[in-house]
Write a structure and sequence with these properties.
Radius of gyration: 26 Å
Shape: extended
Largest sheet: 6 strands, antiparallel
Strand content: 15-25%
């Protein structure tokens, strides 16, 4: 029997926010969809985890992503060109290079790095029909942004002249890594909206709440690596001394 593991996630988290730690995303996407039954004839704690996921506009911590990657669902492989240095961020002004909105400029509202996608506010939209459960209410048609590939469908706009430009990453004299327009040589700063999350607009403006763990406690390093076992560490902490000499043993 297949068993699905339902992950508890906050309902009001918006999929527009992508500033979550990788450890949380990795933990949220580990879906246990089959487990060995209990019994002496079975291998204990044998778990098969899903390793390949289908990524779309729904983020890994949402219920729709869990439904898309439910147990038993098979998807065709998505062939994606790997990007080593990601150069697009939320809040960037980009120009669309293909489609019905070719030549128009807009602001990046959402990013899906797993598919090399960006979504531009109000551009490259498709009309979708939303069905209502009640018969006395008419169906609703809404506009929804479609994804665009960052490799060949959009280009970053240079703020100095508002024209599209290829960019590359360089280092300043102070050692800071920045984006630079190869056409004008000007630095294109990362927008402040890229730091925006559900809790704050900018990291500096965030006020710690009484229930929050203070950042000083989070940054504190409490682990000291030692060449000893857990038992030896406890003995050292509580002052326990071992005087017994273990008998010699030979393995051959």
């Amino acid at each position: 029997m297949r068993v699905s593991k339902v992950l508890s996630m906050a309902k009001n988290w918006s999929h527009h926010y992508s500033n979550f730690p990788e450890s949380y995303i990795k933990r949220a996407t580990e879906q246990i969809y089959w487990k060995n039954p209990k019994g002496p004839q079975y291998k204990p704690n044998a778990v098969i985890k899903r390793k390949k996921f289908k990524y779309e506009e729904d983020r890994p911590w949402t219920a729709k992503f869990q439904e898309l990657n439910a147990a038993g669902k098979q998807h065709a492989k998505d062939w994606i060109e790997p990007i080593q240095d990601w150069s697009f961020f939320r809040g960037d002004r980009v120009e669309i290079l293909v489609g019905k909105d070719k030549g128009k400029q807009g602001i990046v509202s959402m990013i899906v790095t797993e598919r090399n996608w960006v979504f531009v506010e109000g551009l490259n939209c498709n009309i979708e029909r939303v069905d209502n459960r009640k018969e006395d209410i008419a169906h609703v048609y809404v506009q929804k942004e479609a994804p665009l590939l960052v490799t060949n469908q959009v280009a970053i706009v240079d703020p100095s002249d508002l024209k599209p430009t290829p960019i590359e990453w360089r280092y300043t004299e102070e050692g800071e890594k920045v984006r630079v327009s190869t056409r004008t040589g000007r630095i294109i700063p990362i927008p402040a909206t890229n730091e925006e999350t559900r809790d704050y607009k900018t990291r500096r403006a965030y006020i710690e709440q009484p229930k929050d763990t203070v950042s000083a406690e989070v940054d504190k390093i409490t682990f000291e690596p030692k060449l000893c076992t857990f038992e030896m560490d406890l003995m050292e902490k509580y002052g326990i001394k071992e005087d017994r000499v273990p008998p010699k043993s030979y393995w051959y």
